[in-house]
Queue: 2 jobs
Job 1
Amino acid sequence: MSSRDQVLESLLSPAVNSLGYELILAERTGSHENGVLRLYIDGPLGISVDDCSRVSRQVSALLDVEDPISGHYSLEVSSPGVDRPLVSPDHYRSYVGHKVKITTARHIDGRRRFGGHLEEVTEEGVIVDVDGEAYELPFAEIESGKLNPDLTKSEK
């Protein structure tokens, strides 16, 4: 996550939490003239369209007051979906045993993309089994991570 996205997340997370939801990820994409601020939220009972609308109204008001983003952008609020992003160590801990896709900032053992089963979460990072080989990926090196569910059969 970029430092710009971390600043946005720090600003927006309390507002989202106050409504009873968790801000999973805040990310900016697109150009300065045509950007998108995308928020992924979750709640104890999942997320509905009404939940997204409620968060959108609250966050829009906050963004109007704080004005942390220059240029034009659209706000999108969404559930994390079945291929939900994994951002914090707690997110990873919740999905031990599930299939994941992780991209690292630099090559580790000759590769940057790791798709396999999340075997363990340690204080320093995660261990992913890729085709029978275990890779230790430090949190500091993880650029992005998300679930990679096999929708044709149940997860283990």
Job 2
Amino acid sequence: MLFVVLCMVITSLRLVTYSNSINSAYHDIQLIVSVHIDELNDVLAADGVKGVIQRLPVMLRESGDVHLYMGVRAAGEITGNLHVWPKGDLNSHRWWRMTLPYYPAQAETDIYFRLIPLDANTQLLVGYDLQGVELIRKTLGNVLLDNAVLSVVLSLTLVFLMLWMLNRHLQRYNHVCEQVMEGNLDYRIRLHGHSDQFEKLSGNINRMLDWNCVLLDTVKDTSNAIAHDMRTPLSRLRLQLRSMAETQEQPEKLREELQGAVAQLDYMVTLFDNILKIAKAESKEARTLFEYFDLRALVEDVLDLYESVLEEKNKPLLRHMTGQSIHLLGDRHLIGQSLVNLLENTLKYSPPETPVDVFLHASAQEISLQVADRGAGIAPELREKVTGRFFRADKSRHSEGVGLGLCLVNAVMILHGGRLSLLDNNPGLRVELSFPRK
């Protein structure tokens, strides 16, 4: 669109110049013809038609202008340098154009003229040939064509230059967005000290990201501090209540109530433990503890632990894994906890006597770990929400859990530069953890 506008503007300017030049050439011809008509009118007023006829050859000879044409027609005879006369009754107040055919001493010529009546039987014609106009028309036409090509080249150059500049700036903005989405919240656009609007926009984006980090840190620090400070006293209270519940001297009803209170405390301790695990996964310092380990061996250990639990609910565990070791740089405990969370979800949300499939494959680009069940799955419109803290779909609100399982998994994947994908298993849910090969 910008290219079209630029071409139209430049071409319009050239067309205006072309039109003005042609009009100026015609105006010059009109001035020359008008001067000679005025001079002959003076002769007519002084000496009559006979004086004009006598004066005409003298004026042609004195002017020496081969482009000037003058003639007087009286009684069918033409005096002057014209060998033809225009046909028809021509208006004397208008300008006319006529082609003079080939003549022994003269090539075919177009002239621009006025026709003036001297008396009832006599007419005066004064004109000027259009060779100058045609030369300007031809020259400017060639120039216009050259300029059209130049306009296209110049417009394309300007458009590509502008697109290159825009693309360069947009790449900076897209890069910072990608970095922030991958968990690098401290990444900022480098400023160059310019005063243009792109620099101002970059500064505003940096300040916005700074403010978002402050808000996120405030929320995380508050929740992490609460979880850390509350876990210890709750654990102590749990031990005290459990000890009281196991005392035989307590009435049976009181012991049941104490056991219910212990279960509630277990829920709260689990909640705070999960919050602290998520905080660890979201902390950049966790990357300093990364080490290479065998992911296949880790998956086998977790599956061996949960296989009997799944069999108690008639859920066959089907393993689809490569036979080779898969070395991954990361946090072994956090990745193991992520797999545990996925298996716990299959226990809660998939019906009995349905298999659980675990896939582990590696390619040159990435490592894929998948857990698939035959449950109700997750609606597509909720898949982005389920990775948030404490989110639980309506179908799962009455089941056990605190709504942090997939949130922890997502945080672990971001920490490892990977990707959490929630896919249809038709029926059921297929959760894929994709780790990049490094």
